[in-house]
Design brief:
The complex is a heterodimer of chains A (about 400) and B (about 170). Chain A is an all-alpha fold and about 400 residues long. Chain A has helices at about 25-35, 40-50, 50-55, 60-75, 85-100, 105-130, 130-150, 155-170, 170-185, 190-200, 205-220, 225-235, 240-255, 260-275, 280-295, 300-320, 330-355, 360-370, 375-390. Among the domains of chain A are: about 15-105, no CATH class; about 240-295, no CATH class; about 300-390, Serine Threonine Protein Phosphatase 5, Tetratricopeptide repeat (Alpha Horseshoe). Chain A has 19 helices and no strands. In chain B, helix 2 crosses helix 3. The chains are: A mainly alpha (about 400), B alpha/beta (about 170).
């Protein structure tokens, strides 16, 4: 996923470009460098840049950038937060700042560009090692230096991973900044919407979260991460209708996922309770989903138990909805209807009992079903078992 | 990451198990029957004034109690207000139109009938065989449904008249 940059070839600048300077200290450093005495060269250029006369020369900073970069490359490329790299970049920037003729500008930008890439590589490694604070710091160094070395280049991948690193490092403000930037730059990755949606949610900005996730879903309609994130948020938010839509969609994507079906069935039961005008519709939908689950795997406890209760409650609701004024033939008719429904509940609840024989709710439900059917001995049996369960 | 999301989802939904509705449906059906009895049975003139008293011997189950309270608060027996009274013992039984003896108190049927001998009280029970042993109406289960046995003789003994409609719907017992 993360592409690791290989170190690019050194910017070959021959020693012939190192010209004699007005500042003797710089000349000493150059001589040491040419003699392959890197320690001496670095010490010498540090000494020169501390000299006010030498420091006023733009070339001093260019040579310092060059020597420090080489020092970093040779001796400190594996050192965390290597000082030579920072010194090289600072020196190159100083040159760019004080060189009125821009004589070394291109060379300095190349040095910064080379070192920017080294930050990128470090960031990518940190990311793989899950050192998110460090990867965030290295990515930002990369991006900041890239602006100097290649002002026209926009690395949207790096911007995204900077945001991702910030998110993982729990730096939400920076994460939003970079991920939003990646979004504006039309970076193509569904995770962008997924993470940004999650961050907005964590910040309490629910509308923005839904907006981002919905936009993500429009672009990536098959993405389960975005969809299931929305499902969780809808659950948390109590948005059952939206949840139903999201779960419908999730099931379309993953029709063999029984957990999704049970979840949707539960949501339909809740919708049934909340909206009486849609009761029949959601009863049928819930019943169908539970049956699909039980057919696919008869050992799913929740589906068996909930289906049993769904039938039981339906019959009870019919009876409770019947007015006391109902005449006896009508009461008998209702009883006929309800006996069928109670009997529908029985096999599912018995299976739930076989799966969890000491589950109090199951025992109570069986006692209730048999009581409603007038099978008092059976009802009492399960009632006693239920009472024995603490 | 996907796994973590699933876990969140399951915690929220898969852990959810439905709840059975209360009260139990049988109590409501029995109260519907009782209310119908008030329509098909005729009490003597002096019982057509004042409250219509439904007595329960030994206390009703919570479900039955709730349903009787609902009935009393929403319906009338003709023009009479329905009042539910609980009699802890046979000695406590007062003049009432209908006396319901729960199954757990079935052993008190003889005493209760003796106590109500001079009254026009419809005695309703819910244990097999009691219609032959003194109750006027006895709830029974037939084909998984609540039904009732009716002993016309036991009704008329208390100076009550039963309509032919009710007779036609009942399991008649002599």
């Amino acid at each position: 996923m993360l592409r690791l940059f290989l170190y690019i070839a050194l910017i070959f600048i021959g020693f012939n470009t190192l010209n004699a300077q007005n500042c003797e200290k710089v000349n000493d450093a150059i001589k040491a460098f040419q003699a392959k005495d890197l320690e001496g060269a670095k010490k010498g250029i540090d000494n020169a840049s501390s000299d006010p006369t030498c420091a006023a020369e733009p070339s001093t900073w260019y040579y310092k950038a060059f020597i420090c970069k080489d020092y970093y490359r040779t001796k400190e490329s594996t050192v965390k937060d290597a000082k030579s790299r920072t010194m090289a970049i600072d020196a190159a920037k100083k040159n760019l700042e004080i060189d009125p003729k821009n004589k070394y500008a291109e060379e300095c930008k190349k040095i910064i560009g080379f070192l920017a890439v080294s930050y990128y590589n470090d960031a990518a490694k940190d990311l793989n090692d899950q050192k998110y604070s460090s990867s965030y710091a290295n990515y930002t160094q990369y991006l900041n230096n890239l602006k100097i070395s290649s002002p026209l280049k926009i690395d949207t991948t790096a911007i995204f991973y900077t945001g991702y690193s910030a998110y993982m490092a729990k730096n939400n403000a920076s994460a939003i900044q970079y991920l939003t930037n990646a979004l504006q730059l039309k970076y193509k990755d569904p995770n962008l919407y997924f993470y940004l949606g999650k961050i907005y949610w964590a910040q309490g900005e629910k509308d923005k979260s839904y907006e981002v996730l919905n936009n993500g879903l429009k672009l990536y309609p098959d993405n389960k991460e975005i969809l299931l994130t929305m499902v969780n948020f809808y659950i948390e938010d109590g948005k059952l209708k939206d949840l139903e839509t999201a779960l419908d969609k999730a099931i379309q994507l993953d029709p063999k996922n029984l957990d999704l079906k049970v979840s949707l069935a539960v949501i339909c039961e809740k919708l049934m309770e909340n909206d009486k005008s849609q009761e029949a519709k959601y009863f049928t939908k819930s019943e169908k989903l539970y049956k699909q689950v039980v057919k696919a795997d008869s050992n799913v406890f929740t589906a068996n138990y909930n289906l049993g209760i769904l039938y039981y409650n339906k019959a009870v609701a019919i009876i409770n909805a019947t007015d006391f004024d109902a005449d006896l033939p009508e009461v008998n008719k209702i009883q006929d209807e309800c006996v069928i429904i109670f009997k529908q509940a029985e096999p599912y609840m018995l299976r739930a009992y076989r799966l969890k024989p000491t589950k109090k709710e199951v025992l109570e439900a069986l006692a209730g079903i048999y009581f409603a059917l007038g099978e008092i001995e059976k009802s009492n049996k399960y009632k006693k078992l239920s009472e024995a369960v603490k | 990451m996907l796994r973590r999301i699933f876990i969140l989802l399951f915690l929220a939904l898969l852990g959810f198990i439905s709840k059975a509705q209360l009260p139990d449906p049988v109590s409501r059906i029995k109260v519907m029957f009782l209310y119908n009895f008030t329509k098909y049975i005729e009490w003597p003139q002096d019982y057509k004034q004042g409250d219509f008293v439904i007595g329960v011997l030994g206390g009703a189950s919570e479900s039955l109690k709730k349903e009787l309270e609902k009935l009393a608060s929403t319906k009338k027996a003709g023009i009479q207000t329905i009042v539910v009274k609980n009699f802890n013992s046979v000695a406590d039984i007062e003049k009432c139109h209908l006396l319901f003896i729960p199954e757990s108190k079935s052993n008190l049927l003889d005493e209760a009938t003796a106590k109500c001998k001079k009254n026009s009280t419809l005695i309703v029970t819910e244990k097999d065989g009691l219609a032959k042993k003194g109750s006027a109406i006895n709830f029974v289960v037939k084909d998984n449904k609540q039904n009732f046995e009716l002993n016309k003789g036991n009704i008329e003994r208390y100076n009550l008249n039963v309509s032919t409609n009710l007779l036609s719907l009942a399991i008649q017992v002599n």
